[in-house]
Amino acid sequence: MANMAKKTREPLLHIAKRDDMPGWKAWLIRLAAIGLGFLLIGVLSSLLTGASFGKVYNIMFTGVFGRLLKGNTILLWRFLQRAAILLCLALAVTPAFKMRFWNCGAEGQALIGGLAAMICMIEIGDKVPHGVLLLIILACSLLAGAVWGMIPALFHAKYKTNETLFTLMMNYVATQIVAYYVVLTSAGSGSNIIKPVPYGNLPILFGEEYFLNVLLVTVLMVAVYIYLKYSKQGYEITVVGESQNTARYVGINVKNVIIRTMLISGAICGVAGMLMVAGTDHSINTNTMGGQGFTAIMISWMGQFNPFIMAGMAGLVTFLKTGAAKVADTFFLNSSYSDIVSGVVILFLVGCEFFIRYTVKFRHSKKGGEAR
Amino acid sequence: MEKRVAIELKNITKTFGPKVIANKNVCLTANHGEILSILGENGSGKTTLMNMISGIYFPDEGQIFIGGEEVTIASPKDAFTYKIGMIHQHFKLVDVFSATENIVLGLEEKGKYDLKEAEKKVDEICHKYGFEIDPKKKVYTMSVSEKQTVEIIKVLYRGADILILDEPTAVLTPQETQKLFAILRRMRDDGKCIIIITHKLHEVLSLSDRVSVLRKGEYVGTVITAETNESQLTEMMVGKKIDLNIERSEPKNPVDRLEVQHVSCVDRQGATVLDDISFTARAGEILGIAGIAGSGQRELLEAIAGLQYLTQGDIYYHNPKTGQTDDLRNKTPLQIRELGVRLSFVPEDRLGMGLVGNMDIVDNMMLRSYRRGKSAFLERKKPKDLAQEIIESLEVVTPGADTPVRRLSGGNVQKVLVGREISSSPTVLMAAYPVRGLDINSSYLIYNLLNQQKEKGVAVIFVGEDLDVLLELCDRILVIGSGRITGLVDARTTTKEEIGLLMTKTVETAPEGGSDNG
Fold first, then answer.
1. What's the sign of the alpha-carbon dihedral A179, A183, A186, A192?
2. Which of A203, A332, B83, B451 has CA 20 to 30 A from B482's CA?
3. Chain A residues with CB inside 8 Å of B407's CB?
4. How far apart are CA A325 and CA A61, in angstroms?
């Protein structure tokens, strides 16, 4: 018979799904993955630069955190500030993502929020008292971000437009508006740069310029967590995200939930923009957000939509970016190095999910072995 | 007469993950010129077993012999070389192709692509076994039974000697079922080996020569059909004696509760799905709705629940508390609830509409009630108690109330859903295919729950597919075909055949299905 040759053909390994791994074990695997990623970076960097293993790590750590032992916390605060902005944007997109509304417009929503802050600072900065000005800035940023987030939601709810494309395109519109405003206000100076504005800057608390930024984002983190997990609106978001049919079946107005959630998502983006403009740069340009609105999408996913895990992820990514930039500076590597470094660690982190969710089984040779 | 062994399975074991054992040491044989039924409840591993024969899954352990030779079937293509053909429960046809085009699709024949020749061959097969199909007919204009015919011819065209049919009668009317059985018998007499997977006892008894029973993935035994009976088979299937009677009480002073008048609605493409439907559901009575799958049953219930836009008609609800009558036409589910209408609805799509698969039992309990109270935050205490209560009273098998419902088996998912819908003490309870995919025990539990509700004075509307059950459970049966009412019969006096005829009534008078096959 023709099948004689086929007899031995049995798949060498097969993959089976699992969902029985305890949480602590999953996190151990994730930690191990990060460790492996770092190890590989070290090896790569040593090969590239000829520097020793330890030196690369050392540069990375001191580049990010500074010389903490000597009481110098400037770099640490700068690190916290960057991570906070990233986390803020990730917090913003998370309610939308939980609703399966792919808001890829955090960049633009934050930029518009920042622009609103900038306009307030320049136009009425010297006319109203500082405290009132800050409140106006906050309100304007929230509103601007919310409107920018709501536009795609309205169109999606009404005409079923694709939200991913729409939010992405809105980013470019925001960038162009900012470019226009920059040209408009810096006209005559010839530099095309808005000089840092002395009005409407966030107050310095406990002697740290960024303390308020970090504090605000921390509060926001807890608030978003509670909102998603314990509020009725958060519950509605989950139901709409899991199944719009179920939502309609129990009488949830799906359109309203989508629009409401995007208002919130956009408003939080607006806060991030304000923190960047009023709290950090005191100026604005088209690159103020620096692509963090897109990195935030990844943070939100890697944090599994849990604000606390997202905080860790934001810290990790910021650490990698800053640390790698420092290493690149020291050894005259170009900017791709930083991308490679963060890419490697993230690849390990994402890749390990496979081993958490699946097991690989090899062809059981035990039977064959006994028989022979 | 000595039968020739077509296929033999020895000690087949298949597991999915560490916990799910789909098949364990299954041994069975099927002969040429024989119809073998594989009987078992849902989840007993029938389909998994057959999928291993047809090359979709690969067994973890065990051997398969075909014609006495041990073989390895690693892909559907291998199965095809051993002349094994499987007709799946869900058809895999290209809608815009004709019957013949679908039949030859994917064949790697040498020479020219000759549709004429293929049509001829299809005609030959039809004549040989008595299929009625126009080889040129496009699939999208076909009825479900015609599509099934195409699937069967497809495997015959490929020269299959061993045919496996997965729940072939699930979508057919009694008349169509009889036709299919006649064809299957003709194929058997032609020397083919027919294996049908089913959980319907009466079909097993009327069609097959032998029956192999599976229970929870394990092989229980094989009996010769002529030497067995319904209760022995049930016992083999369930593992214990079980009472298969539904206690039907006489309706107590039935009053009109829900009046549906001249309701019509259209689907997204603008095609009419409900056409001038009128009926009355009475309190203390179970109204059955019968019809071929997709005749508008889902839309009808959704229209009542406020999930379908009505182009015409009204739905009147007589409120027993206030004595008022409200029109529910084009009200949202929330507005209906705010009117004080206690309408419960167990939809067909349990995890896609009735429940949220990724949420745990407690959060699913809240779906209907989470809005209660003025607080902006959720109150999980009561839903938690309700979840515990349902788990205990309906014997839901779950690790705990915080388990996502998608991890539960079909029967337990349904218990959670029905439990929640009943817990709000409804006045109208609608259930669409509430026992689909459930094991016998769970099915009878659901029937009992519906009966209890009826006795409490609830107007129960039950959409079912098993006519035997509809006849036993309901008081009146409404038959719909192609979105229209084709009959309203008394369940106590009617017959299966009468309902079967009513089910196909409009289909036959519809213009497109009218061409005779002469």
1. positive
2. B451
3. 19
4. 11
Edge-to-edge strand list for the sheet holding B162-166: B69-71, B61-66, B5-16, B20-31, B218-224, B210-215, B34-39, B193-198, B162-166, B84-87
**Is the domain of B374 the same as that of B398?**
yes
**How do strand B162-166 and strand B285-290 relate by DSSP bridges?**
unpaired
In-domain check, residue B249 = no
Token output for B220: 């229980």
The answer to whether A239 contacts B307, with C-beta atoms less than 8 Å apart, is no
- The verdict on residue A357 lying in a domain is no
- Please check whether residues B142 and B34 belong to one and the same domain: yes
Dist. CA A198–CA B77, nearest whole Å? 75
Q: Does B127 touch chain A (CB under 8 A)?
A: no
Residues 6+ apart with CB under 8 A from B85: B54, B79, B154, B155, B156, B158, B160, B162, B163, B164
Does A253 touch chain B if contact means CB atoms closer than 8 Å? yes
Q: Please give the distance of CA A151 from its chain centroid, rounded to a whole number.
A: 22
Q: What's the pLDDT band for A327 if we cut at 50, 70, 90?
A: confident
Query: Measured between beta carbons, which residues in chain A are less than 8 angstroms from residue B363?
Result: 235, 238
Query: Per-residue pLDDT tens for B85-141?
Result: 888 877 888 889 888 888 888 777 676 777 888 888 888 888 888 888 888 888 888
Here the ipTM equals 0.78
The domain of A219 spans: 73-314
Chain B residue whose CA is closest to A364 = B60
| Each residue's pLDDT tens digit, A148-192 | 999 999 999 888 888 899 999 999 999 999 989 988 887 666 677
DSSP string over B263-297: EEEE-TTS-EEEEEEEEEEETTEEEEEE-STTSSH
